Automatic annotation (TrEMBL):
Protein name per Swiss-Prot or TrEMBL: M20/M25/M40 family metallo-hydrolase
Residue ranges annotated for the Peptidase M28 domain, each copy included: 122-323
A Pfam family per the record: Peptidase_M28
Upper classification of the organism: Bacteria, Pseudomonadati, Pseudomonadota, Gammaproteobacteria, Chromatiales
InterPro entries according to UniProt: M28_fam (IPR045175), Peptidase_M28 (IPR007484)
Superkingdom to which the source organism belongs: Bacteria
PANTHER family from the UniProt entry: METALLOPEPTIDASE M28 FAMILY MEMBER (PTHR12147), PEPTIDASE M28 DOMAIN-CONTAINING PROTEIN (PTHR12147:SF26)
Length: 331
């Protein structure tokens, strides 16, 4: 009995020492990752060019985050209203329909809370590239948010009216400046409940992984968090690194390449690899770049309103994303 007790106590001590060593290692890796991020170059560009239709983009953001849209909850009246409005915008811009029913791709989620929602649909359009042999560039932004909950509107201005308004602005730009690659514009539903909209792009075979060169996902672009914008994805595909490093020199905001490394490498630094719709593309073996800002106090709160938009920062971020697309389209 005494020998068994000593043996058990020894195992407990070893386990505690191992756990403490792991915590110490994570702390070291976290500090090293933060140093790596902060060592990346500061912006050298004073101001971004004005290529996008900024007044229209800002008006789109304000409308998507309005009380009328009621937080764009999937299956709620506000979500249906946003869906219909996006169809109108895609048509006005002149995108070619890419859904199963015109611009729409209706679907029904089959599990989890998402299965309770009726009327879910992606809104999909495309601009044909001048070189049809090239693979697709797929630009995604989820238009759903938390909607009405316990009598309060969760407006979702940053998350993710900002991404959708930027997607529309990019579509207007490329409609006037034809790209080499065919561009797919996907305003996807259901990101807040398991990314079902993006999953259905592949389940219903509107997209095949081998067709796609890159997914560019836009989710939360309009809040100035120390003028930092993250570009996530180069860890998984190092070939993206030179392009994103070039982009760092073309942006007036601080573009940080990171938030895509596993815990063993980055410690307790966030890993956003699975954080938004780009995760579905990653699971399909498609390269991705996700542009977004860190969480802020209004994240998933009713206070995420248009009034809290950092307008100058949002404009500069949107122009940075345009520069990224132009670089990706050139290679």
């Amino acid at each position: 009995m005494r020998t068994s007790f000593k043996f058990g106590l020894g195992l407990l001590v070893l386990a505690c020492l191992g756990w403490l060593s792991w915590l110490s290692y994570l702390d070291w890796r976290t500090q090293a990752e933060q140093q790596r991020l902060q060592a990346q170059p500061a912006p050298t560009v004073a101001a971004m060019p004005e290529r996008l239709d900024w007044p229209q983009q800002l008006a789109d953001l304000q409308h998507l985050a309005s009380d009328e849209m009621a937080g764009r909850g999937t299956g709620q009246a506000g979500g249906q209203l946003a869906q219909s409005w996006l169809v109108q915008q895609f048509e006005l811009i002149g995108l070619a329909p890419a859904g199963t029913e015109g611009y729409r791709q209706p679907y029904q989620a089959s599990s989890g809370k998402a299965a309770e929602h009726q009327g879910a649909a992606n809104v999909l359009g495309q601009i044909a590239g001048t070189d049809p042999q090239l693979p697709l560039l797929v630009i995604t932004a989820h238009y759903d948010h938390l909607g009405l909950h316990e009598g309060q509107i969760y407006h979702g201005a940053d998350d993710n009216a900002s991404g959708v308004a930027a997607l529309l602005a990019l579509a207007r730009y490329f409609k006037q400046h034809p790209p080499r690659h065919t561009l797919w514009f996907a305003a996807v539903d259901h990101e807040e409940r398991g990314m079902w909209g993006s999953k259905m792009l592949f389940e219903q075979k509107l997209l095949q992984p081998e067709q796609i060169k890159l997914n560019i996902n836009l989710d939360m672009l309009s809040r100035d968090t120390e003028r930092q914008l993250y570009a996530v994805g180069a860890y998984h595909q190092p070939a993206l690194l030179p392009v994103l490093q070039q982009l760092q020199q073309q942006s007036s905001v601080r573009l940080l390449l990171g938030y895509d490394r596993p815990q063993w490498l980055a410690g307790n630094t966030p890993d956003w690899t699975s954080g938004s719709d780009h995760a579905v593309f990653h699971q399909q073996g498609v390269d991705f770049v996700y542009f977004g800002v860190p969480d802020h106090p209004d994240y998933h709160q009713p206070s995420d309103t248009f009034a809290h938009t950092d307008q100058q920062f949002y404009r500069e971020v949107s122009e940075t994303v345009l520069s990224a697309l132009l670089l990706f389209d050139a290679i």
